[in-house]
Amino acid sequence: MAKQNGFLYVVATPIGNLDDISQRAITTLQQVDWIAAEDTRHTGRLLSHLGISAKTIALHDHNEKQRAASIIQKCLAGEHVALVSDAGTPLISDPGYSLVRQCRDAGVRVIPVPGPCALITALCAAGLPTDKFHFIGFLLPKSQQRQNQLAEVPAGVGTIICYDTARRIKDSLQDVAAVFGDARELVLAKELTKTFEHLEYGTATQISAWLEADPQRCQGEMVLMIAPTPKAESDISEAELSTLKLLLTELPLKKAAALTAQIHGGKKNALYKVALQLTGETE
Ligand code: SAM
């Protein structure tokens, strides 16, 4: 009888609180022949906490393409392999895409073992709309790149979710305000599931002030969420919006709205409402 292929299990692990690992994840990690880990030392600590002594293989951004071939060989030889990352769900801003794709192409079954994921954990506690959301991964390191990355997000995609680092968050908030206006509602979710878990709500300026009030607040892991485009903004065209934003940097609100309407032949009232939202001014 032909030997059965082994499977690739994509196993989510905790993003902080070790109690968040599922029973199914533990059983899978106990039963597989190999565990492919982003950082074998980091995963070694989780495994020893769980009392599991499994053979680990390093699979990270720099060796994934080549390592995938040897993992697939193992599966084709009937061995079962689990893929884990340092935290959360593999492939989500983490290695694994190439391996999963190659497994698919080679006819190796891929079995997801779901669990923690920072973006979903953040979103479900943010109090921002969840019917539609758009994850853009890590915000880019340089300000201009970051502004372009944010400006490319189309209107109407719902809540925007980004990963960011403690080192860059204050600059990122400035870029968010430059692209979406400083009136846009944001939520910064920090250290989720850990001792210093905190969700801070407000505009870019308000959250920056909160961060600046205590240097410890600028530490740790964080997810930044941006509320969806307000209704008034989705009523005007992308071209009107960018002209309006530009004119608002030089002119009073009423004048900027009137000139934008003149330039594009748009409705002054709708533009005026958007200008109020962008600047946070009231009528
Ligand atoms: N695969 C992971 C997942 O499922 O969320 C994400 C890995 S990515 C390399 C790491 C980033 O996720 C961090 O820089 C941070 O933006 C976010 N993150 C991970 N753990 C977090 C936590 N406990 N609290 C807040 N953000 C977290």
Automatic annotation (TrEMBL):
Residue ranges of domain RsmI HTH in the record: 238-278
Source organism, top-level taxon: Bacteria
Database matches in NCBIfam families: 16S rRNA (cytidine(1402)-2'-O)-methyltransferase
Keywords: Cytoplasm, Methyltransferase, rRNA processing, S-adenosyl-L-methionine, Transferase
Organism taxonomic ancestry: Bacteria, Pseudomonadati, Pseudomonadota, Gammaproteobacteria, Chromatiales
Cellular compartments annotated: Cytoplasm
Record protein name field: Ribosomal RNA small subunit methyltransferase I
Family (UniProt): Belongs to the methyltransferase superfamily. RsmI family.
Catalytic reaction equation(s): cytidine(1402) in 16S rRNA + S-adenosyl-L-methionine = 2'-O-methylcytidine(1402) in 16S rRNA + S-adenosyl-L-homocysteine + H(+)
GO cellular component annotations of the record: cytoplasm
Main localization (coarse): cytoplasm
A Pfam family that the UniProt record links to this protein: RsmI_C
Entry EC no(s): 2.1.1.198
Annotated GO MF terms: rRNA (cytosine-2'-O-)-methyltransferase activity
Organism field: Rheinheimera nanhaiensis E407-8
Functional summary from the UniProt entry: Catalyzes the 2'-O-methylation of the ribose of cytidine 1402 (C1402) in 16S rRNA.
Entry-linked HAMAP family: 16SrRNA_methyltr_I
Tetrapyrrole methylase domain ranges (all copies): 8-207
